[in-house]
Amino acid sequence: MAQDDTIEHFYREHASSVYAFLVSLSRDRTWAEDLMHDTFAKATLAMGGYRGGSPKAWLFAIARNVFLDDVRRRRPIPTESMEYPGGAESDVTERDAIERTLLALPARQRQALVLSDHAGFSPAEVGDTLGVTAGAARVLIHRARHTFRTLYEKDNQ
Questions:
Q1: What's the CA gap between 21 and 125, in Å, rounded?
Q2: Are 64 and 83 in contact (CB under 8 A)?
Q3: How many CA atoms lie within 13 A of 99 on its CB side?
């Protein structure tokens, strides 16, 4: 298989979940698209240096770093509504409540929760992506779920 085929397959396999993750970080679809392109460009250049482990966690770590680098350049974080992939049949009120609750979480907890529950990462992959141990990732995910549940129940009674 040619390298271009491998890159294209890798992109097709992970693009939607990387995009959703970047939307959850940036809170802006257009910005997330730009970040996603930067992520895959960096991943393509770095593929030769890939040292094993979960390719998905490796890619999400690149996406997170691309986002942080962009924020460090003093690009303001938009306050527009977050968008989630999904069908139009989703209950808009419920989605809005979930969105508000996710945005109320501390950034690190929000990242861990999105990686774990939306992208389907294992605690080890969440840890690899966020630069913490698998045990620390488990604790972070647990706290994120607890905080999410508490905030959601408080705001939606």
A1: 14
A2: no
A3: 18
- Where do the domains of the chain lie, and which CATH numbers do they carry? 1-82 (1.10.1740.10), 89-157 (1.10.10.10)
Amino acid at 18: V
pLDDT tens, the chain, 157 aa long: 345 557 788 788 888 888 988 888 888 889 889 999 999 888 888 777 767 677 788 888 888 888 888 877 754 444 444 454 554 444 667 777 887 888 888 988 988 888 888 777 888 888 888 888 989 999 999 999 999 889 888 887 7
d(CA 101, CA 42): 32
Distance between CA atoms of 83 and 86, rounded to whole angstroms?
Answer: 9
Tokens describing residue 24: 């959850």
Interacting residues of 74 by C-beta distance below 8 A, sequence separation 6+: none
pTM of the model: 0.57
Residues 102, 53: Cα–Cα separation, whole Å: 29
